[in-house]
Amino acid sequence: MDTDDIAPPPKKKTHELGQDLSKLSVAELQALIDTLKGEVARVEKVLSDKQSSLSAAEAAFKRR
Questions:
Q1: CB burial class (10 A; 0-12, 13-18, 19+) of residue 38?
Q2: DSSP H helices in 1-64
Q3: Residue 63 to residues 42, 46, 52, 53, 58, Cα–Cα distance (Å)
Q4: Distance CA 26, CA 29 (A)
Q5: Three-state SS at 19
Q6: Residue 19 in contact with residue 35, Cβ under 8 Å?
Q7: What pLDDT, on a 0 to 100 scale, did the predictor assign at position 2?
Q8: In the prediction, which pLDDT does 5 show?
Q9: So what's the pLDDT on residue 24?
Q10: SS3 state at 7
Q11: In tens digits, what is the pLDDT along the chain, a chain of 64 residues?
């Protein structure tokens, strides 16, 4: 089998901070907003989990 016949997987569209948005369509901009909102929610969840862990550790090792 010749590996030249195998197409590489399609690249996933990604956004870079500061990227020129003027070339995106209205639908693409809305999709980007939805994606970014989902990512913000994911980051906030991880942050909340880490803050809870930190608070628990501080409480466990707090000197009295």
A1: exposed
A2: 26-60
A3: 34, 28, 19, 18, 9
A4: 5
A5: coil
A6: no
A7: 66
A8: 78
A9: 95
A10: coil
A11: 567 778 877 777 788 999 999 999 999 999 999 999 999 999 999 999 999 999 999 999 886 5
Q: What is the rounded (10 degree) CA torsion for 14, 18, 24, 29?
A: 80
Torsion angle, alpha carbons of 24, 26, 28, 32, to 10: 100
| Residue that is written with structure tokens 């030249």 in the block | 4
* 8 A C-beta contact, residue 60 and residue 53: no
**From CA 33, how far away is CA 27, in angstroms rounded?**
10
Which of 41, 3, 36 has the alpha carbon at shortest distance from 19?
36
Task: Phi first, then psi: give them for residue 6, nearest 5 degrees.
Answer: -90, 120
